[in-house]
Amino acid sequence: MKRIIICMPNFIGDSINTIPAIELIRQVFPQARITLLGPSFLKELFEYDPRISYIIVSNKRKKNYFRNIFVISRCRYDLGILFTNTFMTALLLRLALVKRLVGYENEGRGFLLNFKRPLNRNVHYINRYAMLVNEWLGNKFTCLPTLKLYYKQECNFHFTNNNPVIGLYLGGTNKRFRRYPEEQAIVLLRMLRNYNLVFIGDSNDAVVQSAYVRQAMIDNVLDLSGKTSVGELVTSIANMDILITIDSAAMHIAAAVKTAFIALLGLSTSPTSTILPRSQTGVFLKIENNLINEADYIKNITPEIIYRNVELLMNRKKDRNDTQQGRSF
């Protein structure tokens, strides 16, 4: 296989979950040129990934659909792997004359695929993508490769002291039941006043989170919400000591760049068993307490509980650093 094209998912977190599967492909075909086809954020998310040669941005508008057929057909791909589930993506690659297609058998598209397997929505996303590739390879592998997201090696924010940096993504109004409650958020910020705090998020989050900062009346706060590109967001998270986040893309980014994180889980968009990052650096907080309404779950995660876990993760990091320094002597 000299040229491989991969149809990527539409969300950042899901795209990060494909990385172990992409690594399996790279291990078997180390000389192949791998192209990603998907949303525009892929250009920044995978900009520094040496496994990826090229990225084609897809667009659902009809004229761009036919343009992509032309662009893809010119490259004469030997293999197409579809991590997406739609009929149209399979048809796109077939019309673009990709020689062999591997994907999930759903939406009646099985006749377009050379290798197909049923889509099991109860399986974790990371395993789902890796299983598709591994089964096509004849179950060559037993273990998942390490999840690693490459990013620009720089520090893109600075404080005037050496205190640890805590990132916060508590969600804006558009996050609805996933958003951390306002009153509890302000209490949490005051408890974290001895740390350097960095807010992240989109422009909707910026409105809410900037209000939190004003009400908490604390110093050493940098609000980057609504001010970073995807690539800058990845670099920012990589430079944090701990990230406190709701169920979000930021949670998956933290896991992929090995930043310790605390995930505040309320009502999720998918079953948590299928979406939580496979990470040794994360703490997942979900407290149901026999509540009937799932929308109330996140209210049970008190600022005190979050703060205790911040201290726990900071102590773990200190112990690791002390151990590493001891080995260097």
Automatic annotation (TrEMBL):
Sequence intervals crossing the membrane: none
InterPro entries tied to this protein: Glyco_trans_9, LPS_LOS_Heptosyltrfase
Alphabetical list of Pfam families matching this protein: Glyco_transf_9
One Gene Ontology term, aspect cellular component: cytosol
Keyword tags: Glycosyltransferase, Transferase
GO biological process, alphabetically ordered: lipopolysaccharide core region biosynthetic process
Xref: SUPFAM superfamilies: UDP-Glycosyltransferase/glycogen phosphorylase (SSF53756)
Molecular function terms from GO: ADP-heptose-lipopolysaccharide heptosyltransferase activity
Name of the featured protein: Glycosyltransferase family 9 protein
Organism: Butyricimonas virosa
Biological classification of the source: Bacteria, Pseudomonadati, Bacteroidota, Bacteroidia, Bacteroidales
